[in-house]
Amino acid sequence: MLKKVSNQNYKLFMFAVLLLSGFLVYSNTFSSSFHFDDQQYIINNLTIRNIYNLQGIWNLFPTRFVTFFTFALNYAFHKFNVVGYHVVNLMIHLGSALLVWWFTRLILATPVLKKTKLTLHSDIIALFASFIFLTHPIQTQAVTYIFQRCSSLATFFYILCLCLYLKFRLFKKRYLFYAFSWFFGLAAVFTKETAATLPLMIILIEFMFLEEILRQRLRSVWPFLVLLVIIFISLFSARTDSLNDMESFFNQPSSARYYFLTQLRVLVTYLRLLFIPVNQNLDYDYPIRTSFLNLPSIGSFLLLASIFFWGIRLYRKHRLFSFCIFWFFLTLTPESSFIPLKDVIFEHRLYLPMVGFSLFITSGLFSFSGSKAVEPVAALLTCLVLVYSFLTYQRNKVWKDELTLWKDVVNKSGQKSRPYIQRGNAYFAKGDFERAISDYNKLLEIDSNPFDAYSNRGLAYQNKGDFDRAIFEYNKALEISQGDAAIYTNRGNVYLSKRDLNRAIFDYNKALEINPDFTEAYYNRGIAYQSKGDFDQAIFDYNRAIEINPYHAKSYNNRGLVYQTKGNFNRAISDYTRAIEIDPEYIKAYLNRGQAYFNQGNLNRAIADYTRVIQINPDFAQAYHNLALIYSATNRKQKAIEVYKKFIQHAPARYSSSIERFRDRIKELEKNKE
Q1: Is the CA virtual torsion 72, 78, 81, 85 positive or negative?
Q2: Mean pLDDT on 595-614
Q3: φ and ψ at 620, to 5 degrees?
Q4: Interatomic CA distance for residues 586 and 394, integer angstroms
Q5: What secondary structure, in 3-state letters, does 133-160 show?
Q6: What would the pLDDT profile of 48-79 be if each residue is shown by its tens digit?
Q7: Cα separation of 420 and 40, whole Å?
Q8: Handedness of CA 227, 228, 229, 234 (dihedral sign)
Q9: What is the distance between the alpha carbons of residues 66 and 189, in angstroms, rounded to a whole number?
Q10: Is 664 exposed, middle or buried (0-12, 13-18, 19+ CB in 10 A)?
Q11: CA distances (Å), 364 to each of 95, 125, 128, 358, 632, in order?
Q12: How many angstroms separate the Cα of 334 from the Cα of each of 196, 331, 338, 656?
């Protein structure tokens, strides 16, 4: 009894060490920014902003419904506070590591393996397998890159399904385990398409490790064959779209064949990354193979075939190692076979295969070291985990923000266009337009389709205030693609900035002809009509923008301005309030609502709004001025003086004109006090 309690305490202690290790290794990721696809699928994804919009989430991406539902949960609790998203991703990773421990214990308890000497070290094999899975640097992309929660969460459900199935098969056929196994298998399938291999994995486990007559096996397996049918039905339409996309991507009728030939080399790269995880890269510049008759393709095929046949040869004497090899090939099948995807290689695709690799390394070392060499092997694995932990921590520094990430990619994929686009966009977001333009210029040297270079350069010149050059760039982009609504809208925005309202409206009309549901075109056309004094047409456009995108805060704010101009302060305040509900730090909405309250004579609420603006941005001069005006108008001149002095005390030097103006106001107020 005492020994059992002691063993239980030891397990709890090691689990605590495992969880603490994971937290420490990923401790520098909690403030890492949103990246890459996060912008499209999280930041700009209106569907996830309503947790009860289950039909909308389903329609968005049926085969990833569970993933997007978790993003909706994140948004409900954290909005766009990135820390909450990273915490959830890390919790999933920690949970998956614990499941790797459980899965290893269960596999080693199967009828075939419990007869081997591996069972003597089952606890320590399971522990180190989970540590390797947890700390290996190749996992960073699936953990730190928020959108790739789909990979980590699908793996979590995948392993949990297998664990519950093994629990059912090994321990008196408890059917509750069986039911939950099927349920979590279904959850995995609707988290990411890579879980499609789950029924085949169960069949593989059944025939490799469990000993029963065929009829009994089929009785256990057939519900998962039903799951396999569900998988293929749910994936059919999505995969059809994917295949069509790839035909245009490769510009060849035989894209599946080219993709397969390319994957031969990719699989070898994956193996290298598992064993030697250095020189990692988010966006590899990988050549598309169109022929088998080249040395890299032939060499890769021979290596992979040798490993596969080695797995077959190991089946009788070393079945666990055979299983780990088959695990690697089977789990990569959905993304590294004949099914073409637009990106041929991504490191997050190794998250699920890592389970087999972790088990292969730990069980292999203990199996071939002998029963008396436990401590040296444990020491070796401890050193390996420490090295992995260091590499993971270092790799996560690259994910700090978009600029650090894409600088790293440009250094490693310097002849690929996308890294320059993304790094240029990162410079653009920071207001460094010169460097952004430099990166966009690079596209003209390396990309046969310069559309992105012209369109992005147009945005950069537009934000620099060089409107004529921006129009030139947009014109060049439209020569390449006349059906791009965004370019017409952007050019319209330039004309709007030049106060050429008729040309701006013409461009917005063109954009809406191409895309009748383009929110930004309606919004900006509304601004143009508002500037012309055509308030009814402006309201119509803002209404239409809000119909398309009920979370478009800028349209509510601008519609409020129109109502305020027309003297309808109640409707204006209602619109400003809605804009603030959508974006609680929307300074313009607070400022405008404060002005509306002031016009109504509701001075306390106006003061509250201007005060809130100052809390959000302590350098916002207009809010100080408006606040001081209210205090002056209500004979609280000392309070007004304090507000002006507070701004002068904290304002940066670039606000010199406002500082001088406020000093003059202080002198006037002090003179009036006398």
Answers
A1: negative
A2: 92
A3: -85, 100
A4: 36
A5: HHHCHHHHHHHHCHHHHHHHHHHHHHHH
A6: 988 888 988 888 888 899 999 999 999 999 98
A7: 19
A8: positive
A9: 9
A10: exposed
A11: 24, 9, 12, 10, 81
A12: 7, 7, 8, 61
Looking at the domain assignment, is residue 393 inside a domain? Answer: yes
Give helix 501-514 / helix 485-497 axis angle, nearest 10°.
170
Amino acid letter, residue 27: S
Angle in degrees, CA 50, 54, 57, rounded to 5: 80
Tokens of 403: 């600029």
Count Cβ atoms below 10 Å from residue 393 Cβ, excluding itself: 18
Which of 92, 128, 123, 94 has the alpha carbon at shortest distance from 25? 94
- The sign of the dihedral angle between the CA atoms of 630, 636, 640, 646 is negative
Q: Which domain holds residue 114?
A: 81-398
The answer to whether position 309 is within a domain reads yes
Instruction: At 299, list the tokens.
Output: 């060499």
Angle ∠(406,410,413) on CA atoms, nearest 5: 125
Residue 202 has pLDDT above 50, yes or no: yes
Characterize 175-204 residue by residue with b for buried, 16 or more Cβ atoms within 10 angstroms of its Cβ, and e for exposed: eebbebbbebbbbbbbbbbbbbbbbbbbbe
The pair of structure tokens assigned to 226 is 């039903």
- What is each CA distance from 617 to 568, 611, 622, 654, in whole angstroms? 28, 10, 11, 15
Render pLDDT for 487-507 as a digit per residue (tens, 0 to 9): 999 999 999 999 999 999 999
User: Into how many domains does the chain fold?
Assistant: 1
Task: Determine the Cα–Cα distance for residues 545 and 541; give it in Å rounded to an integer.
Answer: 6
Question: What are the phi and psi torsion angles at 401 (to 5°)?
Answer: -155, 180
Asked whether residue 27 is assigned to any structural domain, the reply reads no
The CB density around residue 129, as the number of other CB atoms within 10 Å, is 28
User: Radius of gyration of the chain from Cα atoms?
Assistant: 30
pLDDT > 50? residue 243:
no
CA–CA distances in Å: residue 163 to residues 90, 125, 184, 316, 591 = 21, 16, 10, 24, 57
pLDDT of residue 249: 38
Domain annotation covers residue 555? no
Tokens 């925005």 identify what position? 493
507 and 527 in contact (C-beta within 8 Å)? no
Give the position of tokens 């459980």: 102
Amino acid 199 reads P
Q: DSSP state, 351?
A: T
CA dist 120 and 572 (Å) reads 74
Q: In whole angstroms, what is the distance from residue 39 CA to residue 147 CA?
A: 9
State how far the alpha carbon of 656 is from the alpha carbons of 435, 584, 627, 628, 668, in Å: 28, 29, 19, 18, 19
Q: What is the pLDDT at residue 342?
A: 86
The DSSP symbol for 39 reads I
Q: How far is CA 409 from CA 86, 391, 406, 421, 435, in A?
A: 22, 17, 5, 11, 16
Distance, in Å, from the CA atom of 644 to the CA atom of 232, rounded to the nearest integer, reads 68
The number of residues making up the chain comes to: 674
Tokens of 63: 């085969």
